[in-house]
UniProtKB/TrEMBL annotation:
Lineage: Bacteria, Pseudomonadati, Pseudomonadota, Gammaproteobacteria, Pseudomonadales
Task of the protein: Catalyzes the Claisen rearrangement of chorismate to prephenate and the decarboxylation/dehydration of prephenate to phenylpyruvate.
Protein's cellular compartments: Cytoplasm
The ACT domain, residue ranges: 287-364
Keyword Transmembrane helix: no
Pathway(s) this gene product operates in, as recorded in its UniProt entry: Metabolic intermediate biosynthesis; prephenate biosynthesis; prephenate from chorismate: step 1/1; Amino-acid biosynthesis; L-phenylalanine biosynthesis; phenylpyruvate from prephenate: step 1/1
Top-level taxon in the UniProt lineage: Bacteria
Catalysed transformations (reactions): chorismate = prephenate; prephenate + H(+) = 3-phenylpyruvate + CO2 + H2O
CDD domains for the chain: ACT_CM-PDT, PBP2_PDT_1
All copies of domain Chorismate mutase, residue ranges: 4-99
Record's protein name: Bifunctional chorismate mutase/prephenate dehydratase
Domain Prephenate dehydratase: 99-275
InterPro entries, per database record: ACT-like_dom_sf, ACT_dom, Chor_mutase/pphenate_deHydtase, Chorismate_II_sf, CM_dom_sf, CM_II_prokaryot, G/b/e-P-prot_chorismate_mutase, Preph_deHydtase
Source organism of this protein record: Halopseudomonas pertucinogena
Keyword Lyase: yes
Length: 368
């Protein structure tokens, strides 16, 4: 009797789930039809000579935050936001499929960041170098690009900072990705005979202590990307690769050891670059480049307006200027939008004190 009762309960629950699934499908389809109508409205502006904006970072950030505020479980906020991220991505593709460039080849952390931010319904296009991503976005060959800008353990990505000096693009968003490194082997790998490990130089640095403890004598070979490392291992019997989750399925590899990064909080911040300015959301960041002459008190004069107006700095990096021997360039991130009155006032004071000020963009703080 108990078994029959349990079976009857399970059947009733499954029937209820089926009914819920049907309602979910109906609601998702209704949302998709609304997206199609939005596209039709925007296409009318195209016919009238205006340039329609299909992807609105500030709108998507608001939707995800709103969903997380409404969430009452049992799924946690991030899981719910990821589900809605994919629904929004699929609906946006009905309006206009986005082309997003990332640092390739396939299987890199930058691709993972692109898919985390835009969802899996975008067309992701691998590029061989960070500067190439900037050029493709500037030329309009892709809608957006995703570039790494800083790692929590290794610091700033200088290639990205230098590219901002050379190109006039707008930062439209940011995404933070927790980085987990795994030691991967192929089906032909003789795990007792591993003599070399491939990975990007930063990944090798982030796993240095683990390698010292477990494989102190093997050759560490830096390559262009972790995906390139995974690809090499597939055809070699005496090598391993350090790479992330995406490379496992893409190249048919197996984890020999997982989460081997030396610091468990290892994460990388990526920026979304494009050509459109983003309106305020009340929870924004702004990034700027400031050129200062090498004179006493230069850094104080740069930072004082932020302090006076209560603007919270989140990052500051220094690079030598390419235009002048005695000029230095500061990359600064801070909370707030460039159109906020206190931020605007601080930037005007800095412009007056500096050799040059370039606002890279104001954008929603990372939701996921």
């Amino acid at each position: 009797m108990n078994d029959m009762s349990e079976e009857a309960q399970l059947k009733a629950l499954r029937n209820r789930i089926d009914t819920i699934d049907e309602k979910l499908l109906e609601l998702i389809s209704e949302r998709a039809r609304c997206a199609q109508t939005v596209a039709e409205v925007k296409q009318k502006s195209l016919a009238e000579g205006e340039t329609p904006v299909f992807y609105r970072p500030e709108r998507e950030a608001w939707v995800l935050k709103h969903i997380m505020e409404l969430n009452r479980g049992p799924l946690d906020n991030e899981e719910v936001a990821r589900l809605f991220r994919e629904i929004m991505s699929a609906c946006l593709a009905l309006e206009e499929p986005l082309k997003v460039a990332y640092l390739g080849p396939e299987g890199t952390f930058t691709q993972a960041a692109a898919l985390k931010h835009f969802g899996h319904s975008v067309t992701s296009v691998p590029m061989a170098a960070i500067d190439e991503i900037f050029r493709e976005v500037a030329a309009g060959a892709v809608h957006f690009g995703v570039v790494p800008v800083e790692n929590s353990t290794e610091g700033a990505i200088n290639h990205t900072l230098d590219s901002f000096l050379e190109h006039d693009l707008v930062i439209c968003g940011e995404v933070e990705l927790r980085i987990h490194h795994h030691l991967l082997v192929g089906e032909n790998t003789r795990t007792d005979k591993i003599s070399r490990v491939y990975s990007h130089a930063q990944s090798l640095a982030q796993c240095r202590k683990w390698l010292d403890a477990h494989y102190p004598n093997i050759e560490r070979v830096p390559v262009a990307s972790n995906a390139d490392a995974a690809r090499r291992v597939k055809s070699e019997w005496n090598s391993a690769a350090i790479a992330g989750d995406m490379a496992i399925d893409l190249y048919g590899l197996t984890r020999l050891a997982e989460k081997i990064e030396d610091r468990p909080d290892n994460s990388t911040r990526f920026l979304i670059i494009g050509n459109q300015e983003v309106p305020p959301t009340a929870d924004d960041k702004t990034s700027v480049i400031v050129s200062m002459s090498n004179r006493p008190g230069a850094l104080h004069h740069l930072l004082e307006p932020f302090h006076a107006n209560g603007v919270d700095l989140t990052r500051i990096e220094t690079r030598p200027s390419r235009s002048g021997k005695w000029t230095y360039v500061f990359f600064i991130d801070f909370l707030g939008h460039q159109h906020d009155p206190l931020v605007k006032d601080a930037l005007e004071k800095i412009r007056a004190e500096s050799v040059g000020l370039k606002i890279l963009g104001s954008y929603p703080k990372a939701v996921l």
